[in-house]
Amino acid sequence: MSKRIAFVGAGALGGYVGGYLAHHGLDVTFIDMWPENVEAIRKRGLELDGVTPEEKFTVTKAKTMHLTEAQALARQKPVDIAFVSVKSYDTEWATTLIRQYLAPDGFVVSLQNCLNEEKIAGIVGWGRTVGAIASLISVDMFEPGRIRRTVAKGGDKHTVFRVGEVHGRVTKRIEELAAMFRLIDSAKPTTNLWGERWSKLVQNGMRNGISAASGMSTAACDQDDAIRRFAISLGGEAVRVGQALGYSLEKIMKFEPDTLARAAEGEAGALKEVEAGLIASAGANPRGDIMRPSMAQDIIKGRRTEIEFMNGYVAARGAEIGVKAPSHLKLTDVVRRIERGELKPSRAALGLTARSN
């Protein structure tokens, strides 16, 4: 594993994954647009934490570059693997930036929340585009150069990282990437990249915007009757859109996709199963009170969110094929208004009324 690896974006997920790879001796370079983050890593290393003592360590082996220093890559060994781990709205420029420094057989991995492979392929080509999904992982960059994971490692209970080619075949480079990810947590090559991507989008669509709009943690959202029901509506609508688009969906937070959709449509048995699962998971995480998804972190930090690329994207794709997603439209509007300063994050911002089970 002597390949040159670059991470364009050293935020929560990119920093966490890249930090682990560097900790295990891989040649990692972080290129980041947040000056304070780069300087903090240079000064004291990249500090990683988790839910066990073994997950707390400082990475000192990773190289760093300010965005303005990236041109120095022209004098160095070409990049074999470039992870694009920026927000979806920054995908095009980040991919363009790293494209000229790729080795002849180098490629780009989308390590992001949303469906950005097509954007990346439009810049580097489909043959140089790979997707990586981080499933049921929650990482938070709470200070420059400091990242904590707020859920336990998956191990054999759940496959956290899924890596796939856009054409669905398992290639040598996919096997190599899966081996790298196993240095961090459970990982597998997937022949179902698009189904995996949409399934993660369903999960994100249920979590990110609600926490961002309400200002509440994920656990608190799941324990609130009205918010939990709204989240289920979001999940069910996204499942139906994905199914209509022809994706083969994977389990979503341990639920079968169709169970989640039927719960959203009011089927009593399915609704009881999904609600029980969400309530149980809300009380199981010892860090549940601080666990907030990336979009909620963005709102706290005053940054632009990915709402248009998550819930807005679900609604837009549904509109194209005649499958309505009104909950996604509503949530997209609320989060945009919060971004513009027209609303403040609160439970009331969602405009929900309490409903009994």
Task: Please provide a written account of the structure.
The chain is of the alpha/beta class and 357 residues long. The protein has 2 domains: 4-191, Rossmann fold (3-Layer(aba) Sandwich), CATH 3.40.50; 196-350, Orthogonal Bundle (N-(1-d-carboxylethyl)-l-norvaline Dehydrogenase, domain 2), CATH 1.10.1040. It is built from 13 helices and 12 strands. It has helices spanning 12-23, 35-44, 91-99, 117-124, 172-181, 193-214, 218-223, 225-244, 257-264, 268-284, 294-301, 311-321, 326-339, and strands spanning 4-8, 27-32, 46-49, 57-59, 63-66, 79-84, 102-111, 129-134, 139-143, 146-149, 161-165, 187-189. The strands form 2 sheets. An 8-stranded mixed β-sheet has the order 5-2-1-6-7-8-11-12, sandwiched between helices. Helix 8 packs across helix 9 (257-264). It starts with a strand and ends in an 18-residue tail after the last helix.
Describe the largest sheet: 8 strands, mixed
The rounded distance between the terminal residues' Cα atoms is 53 Å
* The CATH class of the largest domain: Alpha Beta
Helix content: 40-55%
Name of the CATH homologous superfamily of the largest domain: NAD(P)-binding Rossmann-like Domain
- Summed up, the domain count is 2
Computed over alpha carbons, the radius of gyration is 20 Å
The count of strands amounts to: 12
- CATH topology of the largest domain, which one? Rossmann fold
Give the SSE order as H and E letters. Answer: EHEHEEEEHEHEEEEHEHHHHHHHH
Give the DSSP E fraction (strand runs of 2 or more residues): 15-25%
Mean pLDDT: 94
Number of alpha- plus pi-helical segments: 13
